[in-house]
């Protein structure tokens, strides 16, 4: 049996494509092994407070001598890190908002990314090293290579840096673009591409969820 930590951050509980992709992965994960479990944290519905003290960016032994972060924030951080460390796979729903990730998701990162704890200076001691991380990315427009908007996606790259480089996880990205094509007249001709990308991402999510879930220990 294994545990999936599933994070959602979309502000749209009904039409969100990042939620749809994540849900398809989670369903396949549960169906793949009878002992599998899911810990679901909806960062939009139950948002985390912003990190209240810079000292929480560090473990106690590396904080300034006069550091005194709020006890409740320190306890929350400890619980979020414990929840992360208990996950065999991490699934992150990450819609692109204003070319970046939702602030609710960024708040989670600020709590769990702690040098010398979850992100050790020595890569050989990364506690999450080698565990799969799956990013379910949805983007309103397109950001194709060679296009004027290439490089405007500032949501997935930092997630890959944090989860992959800092935490040492094995990162996969399930991505769909042009989610606004049905609402923005200027993008209307891109509706078929947007729908095709969504279907492809849903299929990939089901396959990956089944594969990783079936490999549950």
CATH T-level topology: Rossmann fold
H/I helix tally: 5
Radius of gyration: 18 Å
Fraction of residues in helix: 25-40%
Intertermini distance: 5 Å
Q: Which structural category fits the helices and strands?
A: alpha/beta
CATH class: Alpha Beta
Average predicted confidence as pLDDT = 95
Number of strands: 5
| Spatial order of the strands forming the largest sheet | 2-1-3-4-5
Could you say what the CATH architecture is?
3-Layer(aba) Sandwich
Please mark out the parts with pLDDT under 50 across 5 or more consecutive residues, or reply none: none
Quickly count the domains.
1
Q: Supply the CATH superfamily name.
A: Flavodoxin domain
If you had to describe this structure to a student in words, what would you say it looks like?
By secondary structure, this protein is an alpha/beta fold. The protein has a single domain, classed as Rossmann fold. The chain is 35% helix and 15% strand. It is built from 5 helices and 5 strands. It has helices at residues 17-32, 71-85, 103-112, 156-166, 191-214, and strands at 3-8, 37-42, 89-95, 132-138, 170-176. Helix 1 runs parallel beside helix 5 (191-214). It starts with a strand and ends with a helix. The mean pLDDT is 95.
